[in-house]
Every structure is written in C-alpha cells, then in structure tokens.
Amino acid sequence: MQQSISTLQELYNTHLAKVTTGLAKASAKDQSVSVAKMDENQYVHYNLAFCTAEKYIADYFLSYAETRGDVEKSMAAIFYAEAFQHFRSEVSSRPAEYTVSSDDIAALFKAEVNAAVASLLDKKNYDAVANAVLDGNYGDLATDDFKEIRDVYRKIAENTVMPHAEHVHRHDDFIPDDILQEVINNGAFGLSIPEQYGGLLDMMGNVGMMIVTEELSRGGLSIAGSLITRPEILSKALIKGGTEEQKQKWLTALASGERMAGIAVTEPNYGSDVAGMKVTADKVDGGWVINGVKTWCTFAGYADVLLVLARTEKDPELKHKGLSILLAEKPRSKDHKFEFTQPSGGHMTGSAIATIGYRGMHSYEVNFDNWFVPDENLVGGEAGRGQGFYLQMAGFAGGRVQTAARATGVMQAATEAAVRYAKERKVFGKEIKEYQITRWKIARMAMITQACRQYGYEVARMMDDHKGSMEATMVKFYASRIAEWVTREAMQIHGGMGYAEEYPVSRYFVDARVFSIFEGAEEVMALRVCARDILDQAIKALN
Fold first, then answer.
1. Which of 13, 21, 319, 422 is least crowded, fewest Cβ atoms below 10 Å from its Cβ?
2. Where does the Acyl-CoA dehydrogenase/oxidase C-terminal domain lie (predicted)?
3. How are the residues of the chain apportioned to helix, strand and coil, as percentages rounded to the nearest 5?
C-alpha cells in the first residue's frame, strides 16, 4: 500500500503545482490576482479550490494515520487515491483550460500510476474498512486530552438533545429549555472566550470547541450543534477589535450564558457581497440609529444582542471600509415573529423564514427602524469605525471551521444510522450489510467523516496559533459539500424509510443542505477566498 501511495505522491504534488502556477499566470495583472480574469472561467477556479482542499485533507490524513491502526491507514490510503483520481479526471477533461500539456496528462495515466490507483482502490481495502465500521470502529475520535469533554457532550447529545430533535424538526418548535441549560451549565458558550473573561479557550483551545460542536451536532444540528456558533463569531470579533470595557462586559456575559447572541450581517440583496450592503447606522446624540433590513439572522428572536454590520461612513467609495459593527440589544422572544419598540421610538420587527431543515433556532428577517444603539456598543469605539468588515471576518473564520465540525457531527450521525439499519434490514434474504454496494458506501461514509474530522482538528490547532484562516475556509467548503453525499447515501441505505420522517436520516439530509450556504456560500468561498488566495500565493512565488 505504501509503495502505491509513494508512486502517486510526487506526481500529485507536481501536477497540482503546475495547474496552480499556470492558472496564476493566466489570472495575473500587475503582479496580483485579477478577479475579472478569474471570472472568465469560474469553473476551473472553483475546481482548483476543491481539488486543493481535498489534497490538503488527503495529505494530512496520511500523516495522521501513520501513527494509527490499520483501519485508519486504510481509510487514509483510499482517501488519497480517490482525491488523486478526482484531480486527474478533472484536469484531463479540459487540459487547455487548466494550462497543462498532453505530456502532463499522459504522465498522470502511465501504467504504473494506473496500477497504483487500482491497488489502493481495490475492493478488499473498502471491505476492510467496512468490516471495522460495522463492528463499531470508526477510527480514533480524539486524543486522550479531550476524551473527557467528548464523553460529557456525547452523553448530553444522547440523553438530552436526541429525544427532542425529531419533534422540534417536525413542528418547527423552539429549542427546549433543558438543552439550553445543559449547554450553559457545562460551559459551552465560553469555549471561544479567554479564561480572563470567564471562558475556556485557554484550557480547551479551538479543538475543544470543535469536539463539543461535533457531538452536539451529532445529537441535533439546529437545537444544539449551532448554539455556540453565534457567540463564537461575536467573541472573535470582540477579541480582535473590541475595547477592554466591551470585552469585560460582553465576553463575560456570553461565556456564562447570561447573554445570548445573534448575527445580523446578510441583507436581502447582499449576502457575501459585503461591499454593497445598505443597512445604515447614523450618528445621533449618545449613539447611533440603525435603519434597514437584515436577513438570515439565526437565533435573532431569543438573542439579547445582535451583532449588526452596518454602514456608518457615508462615502460610497469606501465600500467595505465604510462598515462598522454595532451591538444592538433587544428583549428575548421564542416566537416566530417579534416586535419591539424602544422608549425613544426605535422599532424592531422580526419574522422567521420557513426552511426545509435547520429548524429550532429559527432564522429571521429583521427590520430596523431608527433602532437606537448607544456609543458604548460601537465595537472598538471610534477606532472601530470602518473596521467592521475586518472584525467580522475574524469571527467568521472561527465560524467556518466550526461549520466543518457541525458537518462532521451530522455525517457521523448519518453513518451510524446507516450502519444500524444495514445490520437490521434484510432484502432478498440477506442483511443489507452483506451487499457489496452497501459496504462500499459505509466504508466511504466513515472514511470521509474521519478525514474531515481530523483535518478540522488540525486547522483548529492552526487557529490557536493565529494561523489557518484559508485552511478554515477550505475545510468548511469541502466538508459542507461532501456532507450532502454522506447523508444522501445514509438515506439511500434506508430505502423508502429514508424518505419517511420515522427515521432521522431524512432530517440529517435536509440539515446538511444548509452547510454549503451559511457562513459563506460555497461558490464565494471557492472563488473569492480559496482560489484567490491559492493563486495569490503562486503569483508571489513567481515574483
């Protein structure tokens, strides 16, 4: 197996580098990336981002598996070969667009290369993984350092979250109080907050946050797994640019669960296109008044405070540099609609958006009509004016790696459900688990989940060292997209029952669909973040 991997590695590294360099040269203008040139062929740049993300994960998975057991060694080898196969199939289908020659393509399909791929993707390797998974071996979940925290939250997920998950989904109810209280009592809202403000970040790091998120998402994405995303985004923004007074007030209250946060960034006509946002914050005596509409504000009803990205600077030429973050305080509501009026006359209304999944937290469209925010709630004070985009991005990097953990949790739940059903259900006189197509699916589901899990932890460690922003986007992009395949196959293994609400796999599938949309749509992540950064690095290397 190792010889086959070695045959692929140098070739894989060399040819991905060739593609990247060729596309970098084609997109360069004045020694930097031209987005306009990239947009002339978005398809190849989207796939450059995907192939690069998959390669990063494959490389790390191989390295990680070196010190693990045979199951994970087999998983990593298969994953690497599949990634290589995806890459060479994509590049060979349009060599001119990827700026590679016929000789380059021929090298990717030499006899020894084909033999190496065939050896790694042999049925017996998938069978070995499937056998282990069907016996309950999904690979190591975490290091010993985090076993205790995983055990705590696995029990919470199974004993407190799972019993409510299906009811909340079917009836679009609000998150039950006992779930909120369990999460508060166990410190989860403080996982992204330094110890000096009452949090657990110094003790647990971002890996701890990932593990908690994964386990809660395994129990129920919308009623538990996403609870700590909003304080994660707000706390990272405050840590990066808030005043000390703001940190003392808000980080402490967020860590204890005393205050709940929502995020109001997206607008009806401006999602990832932050530069065009229209919601305004006008200066008045003692503070600011916010006017306009924000949408997809998850948890906005129950939240005590909304992070609002608003235009405080009126010069249209400033674009994203004219945005600031204000903390808009409000009463709590569990309802699908809310309406509040301030003594000063400011008005805020919200209406939950009906969605196919991700129910429980509710995502609102929120209208601000002269809603007053005091000066002390302008993040960063006067120094924070025009810095909102950059502070928000600091928060969103954490939100993206956390989304990878949410996707991993849902994939793990789907894989476990598929394994249970495959061992129970008989078709044509045999248990489903005995059929090779089922075994292949289960092996891939477990392999993909473990690859995303372990690379997500590695990115979390990078973020502990104040690195890994692009890697966070890449693992979010990859895990979000692949989660749809994993949950889809879990449904398929259930046959007709997978389409019924009697089994939770239908919920896993519709919940997984949201990952590629929130915290940055996958096309924007691929083209405006991943591919752009990849090409920018290549251009710098060329110069």
1. 13
2. 386-530
3. 65, 15, 25
Domains recognised in the chain with CATH numbers: 2-121 (1.20.140), 261-389 (2.40.110.10)
The Cα 153–Cα 161 span in angstroms is 10
Q: What letter does residue 267 receive in the DSSP assignment?
A: B
Counting every residue, how long is the chain?
Answer: 543
pLDDT 10s digits, 124-176? 999 999 999 999 999 887 666 788 899 999 999 999 999 999 999 999 999 99
- Which of 54, 519, 522, 523 does the annotation list as catalytic? 519
Pair 188, 157: CB distance under 8 Å: no
Q: In the structure encoding, which two tokens stand for residue 134, read together?
A: 């069907």
Whether 519 is catalytic: yes
With a CB cutoff of 8 Å and minimum separation 6, the contacts of 305 are 234, 250, 259, 260, 261, 262, 327, 328, 329, 330
d(CA 465, CA 293): 37
**Residue 4 structure tokens:** 């086959």
Angle between helices 505-512 and 162-171 (to 10 degrees): 70
- Do the beta carbons of residue 43 and residue 526 sit within 8 Å? no
Structure tokens at 55: 């390669």
Q: Strand, coil or helix: what is 426?
A: strand
